[in-house]
Amino acid sequence: MNEPKKLGLLDFLTPSEAALRLLVVESLEYLPALRVLYPAAELYAVAEDAAALAAIPDALRVERQCLDYRETPLPYPRESFDILLAERCLETVVNPQDIAAGFGTFIRPTGFFLTSFTNIRYWRVLEELMSGHYRALVRRLFARPDFEILLAASFYKDVFFLPGARQDIPSELAARLKGAGFEGPNDMATEIWLVQAWRSTRAVARLKAEYTPEVRRRLVTLCRRLEYGIDPAENRAHLRALCREADITPRYLAAFTRETIVHREDFRAALTAGAGWEAYIAFLDAAWEQSEAEGGAGDEE
């Protein structure tokens, strides 16, 4: 008896009662599990197979579109979805970067893309190549570093990998391949890599989820004016009013400036030139110290 297919991309997900919007492209087998994980979500599905779409149970409450994503633009507004799931979707397209970047336009700034790919460095693939065979004639195989570069070029900011299907590499072959310069057994034993690609860094995604784009735009404008010494007294007053009006906590302001401010000492000096910011300073210093340890600022707009 065959084992059921392991839906590995679900390992990236945590259950939520939030009213999220999810789009599944071709990977219709994920829909039942996604409905369990996200009972209040709006689920959308795109597939070329009209019969497969028709077979989706009505109880799953899925909006369906029959089209070939490789040839037809998706019929949704920009930034419509919190999660877009499309397993191994870049293996059979002419230009994978175009598809990856195109998918990204439908994902909200706080959302992410879930996909997977066949690893060209998997030991069985390497073994076949060494014997003069390459069987992936109608699909692309990727190496993990190349896939990461592809996603970065497609405007994703954070990319995370999990090993999917795996099979241990024979020790003799492992030693031979390692001697030839291939990476360690974790990569060569992984047939399928699972991928989560965020539109923003995860730290910035969390910041974007807490306040409206309008509030964040006002906040980043005021912080950057202080950073560059533009009318500091006036902009301190505006910043104080915004923090009071939008209930922006010292902890949030510290995390926000960690991702947006480059000239931190200048910003700190402009902020502390006025009274009443003492509660914020301890949070700022702690957040910035952590940021220095981790490597700098992020990508908040």
Sum this structure up briefly:
By secondary structure, this protein is of the alpha/beta class. It has 13 helices and seven strands. Helix 9 packs antiparallel against helix 10 and helix 9 packs across helix 12.
Structure description:
Strands 3-2-1-4-5-7-6 form a seven-stranded mixed sheet, with helices on both faces. By secondary structure, the chain is of the alpha/beta class. It is built from 13 helices and seven strands. The radius of gyration is 23 Å and the shape is globular. α9 packs antiparallel against α10 (232-246), α9 packs across α12 and α11 (250-260) runs parallel beside α13. Helix content is 43%, strand content 15%. Mean pLDDT is 86; it is low at 1-5 and 296-301.
SSE order: EHEHEEHEHHEHHEHHHHHH
Q: Could you estimate the helical fraction of the residues in percent? A: 40-55%
Please give the alpha-carbon distance between the first and last residues.
53 Å
Major sheet: order of its strands?
A: 3-2-1-4-5-7-6
Number of strands: 7
CA radius of gyration: 23 Å
How does the overall form come out from the CA principal axes? globular
Q: What portion of the residues fall into strands of 2 or more residues?
A: 15-25%
Structural class: alpha/beta
User: Helix count?
Assistant: 13
Chain-averaged pLDDT = 86
Low-confidence stretches: 1-5, 296-301
Largest sheet: 7 strands, mixed
